[in-house]
Amino acid sequence: MGRRVTAATMTVLTGMLIWYGAGSLHREVFAERAPNPIDRACLPGLRRLHVAYEAAWASQREGAATPQVVALDGDLRGLRGLCAREGGASQEAFDHLERWRYRAEDQVRLWREAVGDEAGRALGNPGNSP
Q1: What is the DSSP string of 95-120?
Q2: pTM of the model
Q3: Beta strands of the chain (E only): which ranges?
Q4: Contact 11/62 with Cβ under 8 angstroms?
Q5: Which of 35, 63, 76, 101 makes the best surface tag, with the fewest CB within 10 Å?
Q6: d(Cα 87, Cα 24) in Å, to the nearest integer?
Q7: What is the dihedral of CA 41, 42, 44, 46, to 10 degrees?
Q8: Reduced to 3 states, what is the DSSP secondary structure of residue 31?
């Protein structure tokens, strides 16, 4: 009898954990967010985010931690609905920035992990040198 109660309890707890995790994931990924109040139109907002991402990744290339990328991602998700309402060209620009964001982040990660100290000194990046 004890094994059945334990199995039933573990099954219920596992199901609750899966339910909670799926709900959290859905809220973070698929929920509509309100755009940042300073973004009144899609294209100026995308330009602002492009400049902000560039600054964040430039500091990451030099080895500094940049927690503001998470906030920028929230602003980017907020612009999704605004760009969709503005039409085709704005939606295309949003899709382009979103793809660029992930490619640029991967390039920064590659720079930090693959470029060694000697190559960093040769390329003039003091962030990779000791």
Answers
A1: HHHHHHHHHHHHHHHHHHHHS-HHHH
A2: 0.65
A3: none
A4: no
A5: 63
A6: 30
A7: 150
A8: coil
Token readout for 40 is 């009144």
Q: Report the alpha-carbon distance of residue 36 to residue 51 in Å, rounded.
A: 16
pLDDT in tens, 88-101: 899 999 999 999 99
Q: In one letter, which amino acid is 55? A: A
Residue 16: helix, strand or coil by DSSP? helix
Say which residues have a Cβ less than 8 Å from residue 111's Cβ, sequence separation at least 6. 61
The per-residue pLDDT for 130 is: 46
124: phi > 0 → left, psi -120 to 50 → alpha, else beta; which?
left
User: What is the C-alpha to C-alpha distance for residues 46 and 67, in angstroms, rounded to an integer?
Assistant: 19
Dist. CA 79–CA 87, nearest whole Å: 13
